[in-house]
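Researcher: For the record, we're logging two predictions in this thread. I'll number them. Prediction 1 follows.
Model: Prediction 1, sequence and structure:
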Amino acid sequence: MKLIKIGTKKIDDKIKEFAFDGCHKIYLITSEEGRADLLNNGWVETDFRPIDELEETFYNSCGLRFINLDRTKDFATIVPQCASTVTFTYLDSYGCKIKHQLNFN
């Protein structure tokens, strides 16, 4: 399935990976420049994961979790820190939308 939206924010087709600090910081990688910026600021190759692992990583991360875009997009917020409900919307191979709602209350 292809991730197309998180909450009300559409996810660009170009986003293929994200960086995760192992606790709660998640940054969607929007370009090679954004990836290089994170690597130049203390992140390492093992911090990067394929976008297919985003929902599970988010669910299993610390309660302070958030999802932002990388520096090239001014760290725009996709999911604010400590959000209590988040919906991931996917498009399946038949063109049907599938929504997964995570509730942390």
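Researcher: Logged. Prediction 2.
Model: Prediction 2, sequence and structure:
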Amino acid sequence: MKSNRTPFWLMAGLALLAGCSRPEVDLGVELSPNAYTVSVKILEYSEKVGALLRDSSEKTIAKVMGHEGTLVTTLPTVHLLPGESREVDRRKEHPFLVDSDTMPNRYQNFTTGEYLRVMLTLMPSGAPALAIHLDAPKVVGWEDVLGPGGMTYIYPQCQTILVHSTLSPRWSTWQIVDQNAEAAVVVRIDRPTLSPLLSGQDR
């Protein structure tokens, strides 16, 4: 007689796989009742994963965002009214020792973190026009440099994600602002959940 029971080892294996699977990607945003909401994420990935973004649909963006090899940096949510601009500055300066004939213990700074500035206008049709500037420098390695006195100095090797663009995105949809083979910047803009504030009102 054939048994319909699933072997215990198979059930345990399936449970283990389920526990190790990556959770569903959260594409939700923090909406405001009286202001427009701008959400920005930086996605860093391998070239193979980035190739998927030839299809720039929100479904594909979510797939890349949820890939286990993708590093997702979520910037603080920005709430603003038409005609306003807002900044997010998470940059930090770090000193490092550099060689100098006259000042052997001279220091310079390198910067890491993200700086975001957005400005919103509404066109006569009611569609949004969003100006976005993003500068996100990071250290990707260190280089040993031999100084004149025989001392070795360690210099940071930096790279940055830089976006300066104006676009008219669709409402409530994640879209690509800029991308290359290894990184993309995605943005979403949402209307207020109630009604926009008038100029001079408190948020």
